[in-house]
Write a structure and sequence with these properties.
By secondary structure, the protein is mainly alpha-helical. It has one domain: Globins (Globin-like), CATH 1.10.490.10. The chain is 66% helix and 2% strand. The protein contains eleven helices and two strands; from the N terminus they run βααβααααααααα. The chain has a two-stranded antiparallel sheet. Helix 1 runs antiparallel to helix 2. The longest helix is centred in the middle third of the chain and has 18 residues. It is globular, with a radius of gyration of 16 Å. The two termini are 24 Å apart.
Length: 190
């Protein structure tokens, strides 16, 4: 298990709360019980599994919202997605856990690819012509802990651009649906 500051736990739980209202209850409980400088976080694999389960439980609601109005429109279209991507890259570069993965990355090209990927994946007119998620993350060694840290940045960036709770939930569930394409494969997985 890893030990992290309560503010990071609260931030992660806020991100998780975007996935499920039951997570909001867990977040309040965790915040109330954090009387020390550090608290034990659950293993990253457990947190990810809980988030995936919450996404599965709310799949029908997410689909109904998307049928009524595509997520792309509710995110604010290309302009707001570009703002989100700029904030996300900024946060990733400030994140000691995530930034090493971006050391030699052309940030402008990354931003363009991410805007197109998110736009196309949420119902917008953009066309994504970059590599697959598997190819993009192959050999990077992304662990569940890195995945959660990057997810915390995503949650912070979503809040910074003012996406609503439903939109945050839907977007985070999309990210979680790609976890198997991003995470490093263990010898048990092969």
């Amino acid at each position: 298990m890893i030990s992290i500051k309560p503010i990071l736990i609260t931030s992660l739980l806020a991100c998780v709360a975007a996935v499920s209202s039951s997570c909001a209850d867990r977040g309040a409980e965790a915040q109330e019980s954090s009387n020390t400088d550090e608290v034990e976080a659950p293993p990253a694999t457990v947190t990810i599994a809980a988030m995936v389960a919450d996404c599965a439980a709310c799949a029908e609601d997410r689909a109904a919202r998307h049928a009524e109005s595509p997520l792309y429109q509710r995110l604010g279209g290309n302009e707001t997605i570009a703002e989100f991507v700029a904030k996300l890259i900024e946060l990733h570069m400030q994140n000691d856990v995530v930034s090493p993965f971006f050391k030699d990355v052309d940030q402008e090209m990354l931003a363009t690819h991410l805007v197109n990927f998110i736009g196309a994946g949420t119902g917008g007119p953009e066309t994504y012509e970059g590599r697959t998620m598997v190819a993009s993350h192959a050999g990077m060694g992304v662990t569940p802990e890195v995945f959660l840290s990057a997810g915390g940045d995503i949650g912070t960036a979503m809040q910074a651009v003012g996406w609503g709770a439903d939109e945050q939930q839907e977007f985070m569930c999309i990210i979680l649906s790609m976890k198997d394409d991003v995470l490093m494969k263990s010898s048990d997985d092969e």
